[in-house]
Amino acid sequence: MKSDSVGDPDASSIGQQPSLAADPPDLGRSAAPGGRGRRRSLKFAEQYGLLVILVLSFAVFSLLLPDTFATTGNIKAMINSQAIILLLAIAVTLPLRSGEFDLSIAGLMVVGAAITAQLTTSGYSFWIALLLVILLGLLVGLINGFLIVKVGINSFIATLGMSTALGGLAYAITNNSIVANVPEEVRAIARAEFLGFPAIVWIGWILVVIFWYVYERTPLGRYLLFVGGSPNSAKLAGLRVDRIRIGAFVACSLIAALSGILLAGNIGQLDPSVASQFLLQPFAAVFLGATAITVGRFNALGTLIALYLLTIFVTGLLLFGAQPWVSDVFNGVALVLAVTFARLAARLNGRA
Amino acid sequence: MTTDGLQITGLGKSFGGLRALDNVDLTVKPGEVHALLGQNGSGKSTLVKIMTGVYAPDPGAEMRLWGRKINLPLTAPHHHGIAVIHQDLGLVEDMTVLENLGVTSGYGARAIAPISFRRERATGRQLLKSVGLDIDLNKLIYELSPAERATLALARAQRLLQEHSEHFVFVLDEPTAYLSAEDSRRVVALMRDVADAGSAVIFISHRLQEVTAVADQITVLRDGKVADRFAGDEADQQRIIDAMLGRKLNAYYPNRTVPAPTASVLKVRGLTGRRVLSVDFEVAPGEIVGFAGLVGMGHEEIPYLIAGATPACGGSAMFDGIELLGQSARAIIDRSVSLVPGNRQRDGVWTDALARENLALLENRHQLALAPLRLSQERGSTLSAMQRFGVRPTEPDHRVGQFSGGNQQKIVLAKWMADSPRVLLLDEPTQGIDAGAKFDVLNMICDAAAKGTVVLVASGDYEQLANICHRVFIVRYGQLSAVLEGEHLTSANIARHAQGDLREAG
Q1: Which of A291, B229, B290, B384 is the most buried (most CB within 10 A)?
Q2: Which of B300, B351, B398, B400 to mutate to test the interface with A (most CBs of A within 10 A)?
Q3: Do B370 and A25 touch (CB under 8 A)?
Q4: What is chain B's pLDDT, residue by residue, as a tens digit (506 residues)?
Q5: Which conformational region is residue B66 in: left (phi greater than 0), alpha (psi within -120 to 50 degrees), or beta?
Q6: Are B149 and B187 in contact (CB under 8 A)?
Q7: Do B330 and A4 touch (CB under 8 A)?
C-alpha cells in the first residue's frame, strides 16, 4: 500500500469510490476570512434549496390545478403511491454511503412479496412467510456483501446479476402468474390506517427518522461515510471496514425483503413482473436527496424531500394531461440532473 | 546555431507564491547521459512535468531541440522525440510483450483497421534486438525480471519516437529505485548504450554510485535552482551531497531533549516485510529514532510493519512485553501506538469530511456505534486540539480539504497525537508542507518525545533526521547497514551511508 506514496512529494492518490462528485482532494487554500455572511447564506440555500423547490412547486401546481391537484385525495394518493419507493430508497442509502451500489433491491423485494403472497394464499401461516423473508434478506445481503467486499467484484455488476436472478426466481415462486387474494391478515399490516395514512406510509416515515438519527447523530453513520470515502484512513483508524460494508448490504437487503411483505399486502395481489417499476425511482430520490440537508452525502431527510418533489412534478404533469411515459422520462432525467447538480455544487465549493 | 540535443534556458515555474523552479538552464548533448539530481522537493519532478507538457512553464522560458525552437507548453512530447519513462514503467502486467510494445503506437494500424500481426511480430523482434533483449514476444509482463521490464519500456518508447522524429531525448525518472543491485547495473548499462547510439539521456536517481558510474554531466537542483553542475569525471559523492543538501539559511530545528537513560520498551527482532529483512533494534522512552535510506531500500516500510498497516512476514515487535505484530489496527491503537502515514490525503484523513469528524474518529471507538454522538463536546474537544496543534483556521466545521497542506498535516498529527500515544510511528512527517508548518510539526514530535513517547521516523530528509533524531539507522537492501549517533549523526554522514559509502565525512 506504500510504494506509490514514496518519492514524489506532490504525488497524491485519489480514491476510486463511486462518490457523488469524484473529487480529487485539493491542497486547499483556507477560506478567506471575509464574506462569511455570504457563505452562510450560500450554505443555507444549498441545504434547503430542494425543500424550497418542493414547497414552491406544490404551491404552483395547487394554484394552476386547484380542483385536481390541491385536494386531500390527491395529496394522500401521492404520498401512498411513493410508500414502497421510500422504503427502498432509504434501504439503498446504506450501501451507497459505504461507497457501493445495490441494484438488487427491487428484485429482492418482489421475491419477498412472492413468497408472502404464495405461502399465505396457500394456507401457510404468515409467520412462516415472515421467517422465510427474513432469511431471504439475510442470505442475499450476505452473498452480495461477500462477492463485493471479499471477492472484490464491482458492486454494479454483482448486484445487477443478483437482481436478474431474483427476478427469475419471483416467476418460479408464483408459477409465472399473478397471485391474487392475499389474505386480509397480510393486507392489514400494510393498510391499517392511523391518522389518515396507512401503516406502509408510517413505516417509511419512521425509517426516515431512524436513519436520520443513525446517519447524523451516531458513530455508525460516520463510519459508513469514512468507509466509503476514505477506506485507507478508516482502516488505519481501526474501523472494521469489511464488516461495516458487508453489514450495510445485509441491512439494506433485509429492509428490501421485508418491504416485499408490505408490497403484497398493500396491493392485495402480486404480479411477478413489477420489479422493474421499482428500480430507478429509489436511486433518483437518493441521488437528488444528496443535494439537500447534509449536502454531498446520501442522507435520509434529503431522500424524503427529493422523493416527494419528484412525485409532485410527475403527478402535476399527469394531471395536466401528460402521457404516462412522462413519469419515466422525468425520473430518468431527474437522476442525471441530480448527479450533475451535485458535481457542480462540489465544484462551486472548490472540491472538484 | 548549435546542434545540442536539448537546450532549456530561463525555465521558471511558480505555484501560487512558491517558486518550484527558478531560472533553470539545462543542456543535454546527443550521446550524453545527463544526471539530474536533488532532494525531494528540489524541483526535479516539476522539470520533468514541464518536459512532458503536464505543466506550462512561466513566461520567459525557452526550449530548443536540435537547434529548433519548441513552443511551450509542450503538447505531444513524443512528436518532438521526447520520451519519459517513469519508475512504474507503465507496462500492462497481464498482457504479452508484443501487446505492450504496440499499445502506445496503436499496433501500427488505424483505429479499426485490422492489426497485421506478422508485421507486429517483425517490428517487435527488431525492437527487442535493438535494445539487446532476448525474450519471447508471447511472454506476459509479470514473468519478466525488473531489468527486462525496464528495457522493454525503453524499447517501446523508442518505437513511438521513431514514428515522429529521428532524434530522441529519453528521460528516465528513477528507473532503478526498486531494483536489486544486479538489475540496476543492467539498466544503467542500457542507458549507456542508448546514449552511445546518439540519443540524449536524462537520468534521475538518488543512487549516487550509479550516477557517478554512468553520467557524463551532472546537474544538481536545490530549492528550484541549479545548485551545481559539473562533468561526470570530476564528480565525487561528497561534492554531489554538498550541492544537494546545501546550507539552508533559515533552517531551524527544535531543541532535542536528551532522554534519561532507561531500559528499552520497544524491542524489535527479526522484523521482515516485503523489503526489510530480519531487522533488529530497540528503542527507549523519549528517544527519537530515524530510519533513512534510498527510495525502495525498505526504511519507509518499518513504521507500517510495526503498526500492522502492512502485514509483516515475520519477526516480533514487543512493546512493554506485549507483541504488536499480528494485532488488529484497533488493538494497536488501544495499546497507544499511533501511525502517522506519509500519504495524508489517502491514509491520514478523509479530505471531504469535516475537521472535527476526522479528529473525533479515534475517540468514537469508546462509545457504542449506535449511541448518540455528543456533538457539542466533540466541537469543544476538537477546537482545543486544533488550538494546541496550531491548526489555522481553527474551524472544526471546515472540510479538511479546505485547509492548506501544512494545516492538513497538523490535523493528521492532532488526530493521532491528541491522546498522547506511547509509541509514535511517522513516515515522512513533513512531506510537502511549508517551512513554518514544518517547524511546528517537528516541534510537536520533539515535545511528544520529551514526555516519554517512543518515536520512530522514516524519512528521506537527511538534514531533518540529523537534527531531530537521537539515533539514525541506515537501511540498505532491506538491512540495517549502519547506525549513526552523537557527533557522527550529520546529514552528510546519513547521505554517505545511504549511498553505501563507508568512509566518514570529514
Answers
A1: B290
A2: B351
A3: no
A4: 456 788 899 999 887 667 788 899 999 999 999 999 887 678 888 888 888 888 888 888 888 888 888 887 787 777 888 888 887 777 887 888 888 887 776 666 566 666 777 778 888 888 888 777 888 888 888 888 777 888 888 888 887 777 777 788 889 888 877 777 777 888 888 888 888 888 899 998 877 878 888 899 999 998 888 988 988 888 777 788 888 877 554 456 787 777 777 889 999 999 999 989 999 999 999 999 999 988 788 898 999 999 999 999 999 999 999 999 999 999 999 999 999 998 888 899 999 999 999 999 998 888 899 999 999 999 999 999 999 888 888 899 999 988 887 889 999 999 999 888 999 999 999 877 766 778 888 999 999 999 999 999 999 888 889 989 999 999 998 999 999 998 899 888 898 898 886 655 44
A5: left
A6: no
A7: no
For residue B296, list chain A residues with Cβ-Cβ distance below 8 A. Answer: 6
CATH of B6-245, one of 3.90.226.10, 3.40.50.300, 3.30.930.10, 3.40.50.2000: 3.40.50.300
Question: Can you give the three-state secondary structure of A34-88, one letter per residue?
Answer: CCHHHHHHHHHHHHHHHHHHHHHHHHHHHHHCCCCCCCHHHHHHHHHHCHHHHHH
In angstroms, the CA A86 to CA B489 distance is 66
CB contact under 8 A, B309 and A236: yes
- The domain in which residue A139 lies consists of 66-274
Q: Do B373 and A30 touch (CB under 8 A)?
A: no
Taking the Cβ of residue A238 and every Cβ of chain B, the question of whether any pair is shorter than 8 Å is answered with yes
Same fold, B6-245 and B261-336+420-501: yes
Q: Which residue from B minimizes the CA distance to A216?
A: B373
Residue A196 — φ and ψ, nearest 5°? 85, -5
Q: Which three cell numbers stand for residue B118?
A: 506478422
In 3D space, the residue among B146, B171, B185, B153 whose CA is nearest the CA of residue B65 turns out to be B171
Query: What ranges in chain A are assigned the alpha helix state H?
Result: 36-64, 72-81, 83-97, 105-121, 126-145, 155-173, 184-191, 199-217, 219-229, 231-236, 241-267, 280-289, 300-319, 325-348
Residue of B nearest to A239 (CA): B330
Note whether A225 contacts B: Cβ–Cβ < 8 A: yes
User: Any CB–CB contact under 8 A between A219 and chain B?
Assistant: yes
Report the residue of chain B nearest A350, measured CA to CA: B402
Q: How many domains does chain A fold into?
A: 1
Residues 6+ apart with CB under 8 A from B504: B488, B493, B496
Q: Return the residue in B346, B411, B430 with the most chain A beta carbons within 10 A, the one to mutate for interface testing.
A: B346
Q: Which of B13, B306, B350, B411 to mutate to test the interface with A (most CBs of A within 10 A)?
A: B350
Q: Which CATH architecture has domain B261-336+420-501?
A: 3-Layer(aba) Sandwich (3.40)
Say if the Cβ atoms of B332 and A238 lie within 8 Å.
yes
- Do A230 and B174 lie within an 8 Å CB cutoff? no
Chain A positions in Cβ-Cβ contact with residue B301 (cut-off 8 Å): 2
- Where in chain B are the domains? 6-245, 261-336+420-501, 351-419
Set of chain B residues whose Cβ sits within 8 Å of the Cβ of A5: 341-343, 346-347
Say yes or no for a CB contact (<8 Å) between B401 and A25: yes
Contacts of A38 (CB under 8 A, 6+ apart): none
